[in-house]
Write a structure and sequence with these properties.
The structure is a single chain. The longest helix is centred in the middle third of the chain and has 107 residues. It is built from 5 helices and no strands. The chain is an all-alpha fold. α1 crosses α2 and α2 runs antiparallel to α3. It has one domain.
Length: 241
Protein backbone atom coordinates (compact mmCIF):
# COMPACT_ATOMS: atom_id res chain seq x y z
CA UNK A 1 0.00 0.00 0.00
CA UNK A 2 1.34 3.43 -0.96
CA UNK A 3 1.60 6.41 1.39
CA UNK A 4 1.24 8.83 -1.53
CA UNK A 5 -1.62 11.31 -1.62
CA UNK A 6 -0.71 12.95 -4.95
CA UNK A 7 0.78 10.73 -7.67
CA UNK A 8 3.97 12.14 -9.21
CA UNK A 9 4.20 12.83 -12.92
CA UNK A 10 7.05 10.30 -13.11
CA UNK A 11 4.87 7.55 -11.67
CA UNK A 12 1.99 8.47 -13.98
CA UNK A 13 4.33 8.25 -16.97
CA UNK A 14 5.44 4.74 -15.86
CA UNK A 15 1.84 3.59 -15.61
CA UNK A 16 1.05 4.98 -19.05
CA UNK A 17 4.05 3.21 -20.55
CA UNK A 18 2.93 -0.09 -19.02
CA UNK A 19 -0.55 0.31 -20.46
CA UNK A 20 0.61 1.45 -23.91
CA UNK A 21 1.38 -1.93 -25.57
CA UNK A 22 -1.98 -3.41 -24.60
CA UNK A 23 -3.79 -0.36 -25.96
CA UNK A 24 -1.97 -0.57 -29.30
CA UNK A 25 -2.61 -4.29 -29.65
CA UNK A 26 -6.31 -3.79 -28.89
CA UNK A 27 -6.62 -0.99 -31.44
CA UNK A 28 -4.95 -3.10 -34.15
CA UNK A 29 -6.86 -6.31 -33.38
CA UNK A 30 -9.27 -7.70 -35.96
CA UNK A 31 -12.19 -9.93 -34.93
CA UNK A 32 -13.20 -11.89 -38.03
CA UNK A 33 -13.73 -15.47 -36.89
CA UNK A 34 -14.07 -17.59 -33.75
CA UNK A 35 -10.29 -17.88 -33.28
CA UNK A 36 -9.73 -14.10 -33.45
CA UNK A 37 -12.81 -13.63 -31.24
CA UNK A 38 -11.21 -15.90 -28.60
CA UNK A 39 -7.91 -14.01 -28.84
CA UNK A 40 -9.75 -10.73 -28.41
CA UNK A 41 -11.43 -12.11 -25.30
CA UNK A 42 -8.06 -13.17 -23.84
CA UNK A 43 -6.65 -9.72 -24.61
CA UNK A 44 -9.63 -8.08 -22.93
CA UNK A 45 -8.97 -10.18 -19.81
CA UNK A 46 -5.28 -9.14 -19.81
CA UNK A 47 -6.38 -5.53 -20.01
CA UNK A 48 -8.76 -6.15 -17.11
CA UNK A 49 -5.82 -7.54 -15.08
CA UNK A 50 -3.83 -4.39 -15.81
CA UNK A 51 -6.86 -2.29 -14.78
CA UNK A 52 -6.99 -4.18 -11.48
CA UNK A 53 -3.26 -3.58 -10.90
CA UNK A 54 -3.71 0.15 -11.47
CA UNK A 55 -6.80 0.19 -9.24
CA UNK A 56 -4.82 -1.54 -6.48
CA UNK A 57 -2.26 1.26 -6.67
CA UNK A 58 -4.70 4.17 -6.80
CA UNK A 59 -7.47 2.97 -4.45
CA UNK A 60 -5.56 3.65 -1.20
CA UNK A 61 -4.76 7.17 -2.45
CA UNK A 62 -8.41 7.74 -3.31
CA UNK A 63 -9.45 6.39 0.10
CA UNK A 64 -7.23 8.93 1.87
CA UNK A 65 -8.54 11.72 -0.32
CA UNK A 66 -12.14 10.68 0.34
CA UNK A 67 -11.47 10.61 4.08
CA UNK A 68 -10.18 14.17 3.96
CA UNK A 69 -13.13 15.27 1.85
CA UNK A 70 -15.56 13.47 4.17
CA UNK A 71 -14.11 15.25 7.21
CA UNK A 72 -14.41 18.60 5.44
CA UNK A 73 -17.99 17.85 4.40
CA UNK A 74 -18.89 16.81 7.95
CA UNK A 75 -17.56 20.10 9.31
CA UNK A 76 -19.39 22.01 6.60
CA UNK A 77 -22.62 20.13 7.35
CA UNK A 78 -22.40 20.88 11.06
CA UNK A 79 -21.76 24.59 10.42
CA UNK A 80 -24.68 24.73 7.99
CA UNK A 81 -27.00 23.03 10.49
CA UNK A 82 -25.99 25.53 13.18
CA UNK A 83 -26.60 28.41 10.77
CA UNK A 84 -29.99 26.99 9.74
CA UNK A 85 -31.08 26.61 13.38
CA UNK A 86 -30.31 30.26 14.06
CA UNK A 87 -31.94 31.47 10.84
CA UNK A 88 -35.06 29.27 11.03
CA UNK A 89 -37.14 31.57 13.33
CA UNK A 90 -36.24 34.63 11.26
CA UNK A 91 -37.04 32.88 7.98
CA UNK A 92 -40.33 31.68 9.46
CA UNK A 93 -41.25 35.17 10.64
CA UNK A 94 -40.42 36.57 7.21
CA UNK A 95 -42.62 33.96 5.55
CA UNK A 96 -45.53 34.85 7.88
CA UNK A 97 -45.23 38.52 7.00
CA UNK A 98 -44.97 37.81 3.28
CA UNK A 99 -48.07 35.63 3.50
CA UNK A 100 -50.02 38.43 5.19
CA UNK A 101 -48.82 40.97 2.61
CA UNK A 102 -49.79 38.67 -0.28
CA UNK A 103 -53.15 38.07 1.40
CA UNK A 104 -53.75 41.83 1.51
CA UNK A 105 -52.85 42.21 -2.18
CA UNK A 106 -55.06 39.27 -3.15
CA UNK A 107 -57.98 40.86 -1.30
CA UNK A 108 -57.40 44.13 -3.16
CA UNK A 109 -57.35 42.21 -6.45
CA UNK A 110 -60.60 40.46 -5.48
CA UNK A 111 -62.32 43.75 -4.68
CA UNK A 112 -61.04 45.25 -7.90
CA UNK A 113 -62.38 42.30 -9.86
CA UNK A 114 -65.79 42.45 -8.14
CA UNK A 115 -66.00 46.17 -8.84
CA UNK A 116 -65.28 45.59 -12.53
CA UNK A 117 -67.92 42.85 -12.69
CA UNK A 118 -70.48 45.12 -11.00
CA UNK A 119 -69.70 47.89 -13.49
CA UNK A 120 -70.20 45.52 -16.43
CA UNK A 121 -73.51 44.31 -14.98
CA UNK A 122 -74.66 47.89 -14.43
CA UNK A 123 -73.85 48.68 -18.05
CA UNK A 124 -75.86 45.66 -19.20
CA UNK A 125 -78.84 46.67 -17.05
CA UNK A 126 -78.67 50.22 -18.39
CA UNK A 127 -78.76 48.94 -21.96
CA UNK A 128 -81.72 46.71 -21.10
CA UNK A 129 -83.55 49.64 -19.54
CA UNK A 130 -82.80 51.77 -22.57
CA UNK A 131 -84.28 49.11 -24.83
CA UNK A 132 -87.38 48.76 -22.63
CA UNK A 133 -87.91 52.52 -22.68
CA UNK A 134 -87.53 52.54 -26.45
CA UNK A 135 -90.19 49.83 -26.78
CA UNK A 136 -92.57 51.75 -24.52
CA UNK A 137 -92.02 54.91 -26.54
CA UNK A 138 -92.84 53.07 -29.75
CA UNK A 139 -96.01 51.65 -28.22
CA UNK A 140 -97.04 55.14 -27.09
CA UNK A 141 -96.67 56.25 -30.71
CA UNK A 142 -98.87 53.36 -31.83
CA UNK A 143 -95.97 51.60 -33.54
CA UNK A 144 -96.75 48.26 -31.96
CA UNK A 145 -94.96 46.13 -34.53
CA UNK A 146 -91.72 48.05 -34.09
CA UNK A 147 -92.12 47.85 -30.32
CA UNK A 148 -92.63 44.08 -30.57
CA UNK A 149 -89.44 43.75 -32.61
CA UNK A 150 -87.48 45.67 -30.00
CA UNK A 151 -88.91 43.48 -27.22
CA UNK A 152 -88.08 40.32 -29.19
CA UNK A 153 -84.41 41.21 -29.39
CA UNK A 154 -82.23 38.76 -27.36
CA UNK A 155 -81.06 39.97 -23.94
CA UNK A 156 -77.98 42.11 -24.04
CA UNK A 157 -75.01 39.96 -23.01
CA UNK A 158 -72.72 41.31 -20.35
CA UNK A 159 -69.67 43.04 -21.85
CA UNK A 160 -66.71 40.73 -22.17
CA UNK A 161 -64.42 41.03 -19.20
CA UNK A 162 -61.06 42.58 -20.06
CA UNK A 163 -57.82 40.90 -19.04
CA UNK A 164 -57.71 41.05 -15.24
CA UNK A 165 -55.52 43.79 -13.85
CA UNK A 166 -53.93 43.77 -10.43
CA UNK A 167 -54.01 46.47 -7.85
CA UNK A 168 -50.71 48.25 -7.39
CA UNK A 169 -48.90 47.24 -4.23
CA UNK A 170 -48.29 49.99 -1.66
CA UNK A 171 -44.80 51.40 -2.08
CA UNK A 172 -42.46 50.28 0.69
CA UNK A 173 -38.75 50.97 0.29
CA UNK A 174 -36.77 47.77 -0.16
CA UNK A 175 -39.78 45.61 -1.09
CA UNK A 176 -41.59 44.70 -4.27
CA UNK A 177 -44.54 42.50 -5.19
CA UNK A 178 -43.68 40.76 -8.46
CA UNK A 179 -46.36 38.67 -10.17
CA UNK A 180 -45.13 35.22 -11.17
CA UNK A 181 -46.96 32.85 -13.47
CA UNK A 182 -47.00 29.06 -13.43
CA UNK A 183 -48.96 26.37 -15.23
CA UNK A 184 -51.30 23.89 -13.58
CA UNK A 185 -52.19 20.69 -15.44
CA UNK A 186 -55.95 20.21 -15.25
CA UNK A 187 -56.34 17.26 -17.64
CA UNK A 188 -53.48 15.10 -18.90
CA UNK A 189 -55.81 13.29 -21.30
CA UNK A 190 -56.86 16.59 -22.90
CA UNK A 191 -53.23 17.60 -23.32
CA UNK A 192 -52.32 14.23 -24.87
CA UNK A 193 -55.19 14.45 -27.34
CA UNK A 194 -54.22 18.00 -28.29
CA UNK A 195 -50.58 16.96 -28.77
CA UNK A 196 -51.69 14.15 -31.09
CA UNK A 197 -53.24 16.80 -33.37
CA UNK A 198 -50.62 19.51 -32.83
CA UNK A 199 -47.06 18.09 -32.77
CA UNK A 200 -45.72 21.40 -31.44
CA UNK A 201 -47.36 20.52 -28.11
CA UNK A 202 -45.37 17.29 -27.75
CA UNK A 203 -42.64 19.22 -25.93
CA UNK A 204 -45.01 19.52 -22.97
CA UNK A 205 -45.23 15.73 -22.61
CA UNK A 206 -42.35 14.29 -20.58
CA UNK A 207 -41.32 10.72 -21.45
CA UNK A 208 -40.29 8.54 -18.49
CA UNK A 209 -37.31 6.86 -20.16
CA UNK A 210 -36.36 4.99 -16.98
CA UNK A 211 -39.81 3.38 -16.78
CA UNK A 212 -39.69 2.45 -20.47
CA UNK A 213 -36.23 0.87 -20.06
CA UNK A 214 -37.50 -1.15 -17.08
CA UNK A 215 -40.45 -2.36 -19.13
CA UNK A 216 -38.11 -3.40 -21.96
CA UNK A 217 -35.81 -5.30 -19.57
CA UNK A 218 -38.78 -7.16 -18.09
CA UNK A 219 -40.81 -7.86 -21.25
CA UNK A 220 -38.11 -8.05 -23.97
CA UNK A 221 -39.79 -8.63 -27.37
CA UNK A 222 -43.20 -8.88 -25.66
CA UNK A 223 -43.10 -5.21 -24.67
CA UNK A 224 -46.33 -3.63 -25.90
CA UNK A 225 -46.32 0.15 -25.57
CA UNK A 226 -47.70 2.09 -28.57
CA UNK A 227 -45.03 4.19 -30.23
CA UNK A 228 -42.18 2.46 -28.37
CA UNK A 229 -39.84 -0.32 -29.54
CA UNK A 230 -37.84 -2.67 -27.33
CA UNK A 231 -34.22 -2.65 -28.51
CA UNK A 232 -31.64 -5.29 -27.50
CA UNK A 233 -27.93 -4.44 -27.49
CA UNK A 234 -25.02 -6.83 -27.11
CA UNK A 235 -22.37 -6.37 -24.47
CA UNK A 236 -19.24 -8.21 -23.26
CA UNK A 237 -18.76 -9.00 -19.55
CA UNK A 238 -15.29 -9.80 -18.21
CA UNK A 239 -14.58 -11.93 -15.16
CA UNK A 240 -11.81 -10.98 -12.73
CA UNK A 241 -8.94 -13.47 -12.59
Amino acid sequence: MTDEVVVSEERLAQLRVQAGPLVRIAEAALVQDEESYAKAGELALRIRERENEIATYFDPILAKTKASVAAAKAAEKEAKEQKDRILAPLIGAQAVLKGKMVGFLNEQDRRRRLGAEAAREAQRCAEEEERRAAAEALEAQGRTEAAARVKALPPTPAPRAPAPSRAAAPKVAGTSAPVRWRASLTSLLTLVRAAAEKPELLRFLCVDQSALDTEAREKHEAMDVPGVEAISERGIALANR
